[in-house]
Design goal:
37% of the residues lie in helices and 45% in strands. It contains four helices and six strands, in the order αααββαββββ. Strands 2-1-6-5-4-3 form a six-stranded mixed beta sheet. β3 and β4 form a beta hairpin. 16% of the residues are buried.
Amino acid sequence: MNKTKTTSFLVILFLSICGFANAQHPNLEKSVEELRQLMVQPTKVGLTAITHFKLTYGHSDGKLENRDQFVEALVSKASNFTEIELSNQTIETLGKTAIVRHDLYAKTLDGGNPAEVKLHIMTVWQKQKKGWVLLARQSVRRK
């Protein structure tokens, strides 16, 4: 094979592999959406099922929670989301690991006090037999 044909073959192979990776996104997007819904209408069973037992959940103020703390904060309404909208989402997958980034706009009612939150979010997901589970999350405030 000459250099041009080899380069063309490699480009086509790369694009095919990328297309295969993108074929995994619908299931991951479904999991991201399921998490969004569970954060607005939390259930212990649902939140536990969609999160890894070693979850590390980082807030924009630097607070870190493990899975039990994250679930308890939502179920007890200590962290009370009344609405969450996600935008500008990107997904990068590498095998059974994925990085999802998006912007979050939310309305909250923590302690009975209404507020609005605007964040940049990065999550790390792991594909398991039961589907994609959240392994890590970190946020920073948007201006």
